[in-house]
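hey so u asked for the seq, here:
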Amino acid sequence: MGLSGGRIMPGMSRTFSLSRLMLGVTVFCVLCGLAVNFPLAVILCAFVAALSLPPAVVVWFALARYSKQRGSLLWNVVIGAFAGCMGGVIASGGDFVGPSWLGFLSVMIYSSIGALVWGCLGLLDEVLPTRKNS
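ran it, structure tokens below
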């Protein structure tokens, strides 16, 4: 019977999902295969993620106190920061004029704006009443 006396322990799920495990293993294997076959693309993706993460964390901390679903807000902010970072790279044309720190700063500003806009939209969707909440 176990230590719980036959009852389901709180916090533990009742079933083990083999499909989720298989999906996780498959995604991990595909990502490892892409990393081995395209090392330059992986380095560039890590660079974009490193530029997107600090603004996303700052915006998330600023908006988290107003949210009931902080995990959902975190995903919204990270997606917005990534989109803003890509928009900053596209807006610069890939060729930064001036010192390199100025280019990084402009990408960080675009990333912050994207995170703030996307996070605020997600927060508004959560806070404003909809038909499903009524």
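Helices lie at 18-37, 39-63, 70-92, 100-127. Residues 100-127 form the longest helix (28 residues).
lmk if thats what u needed
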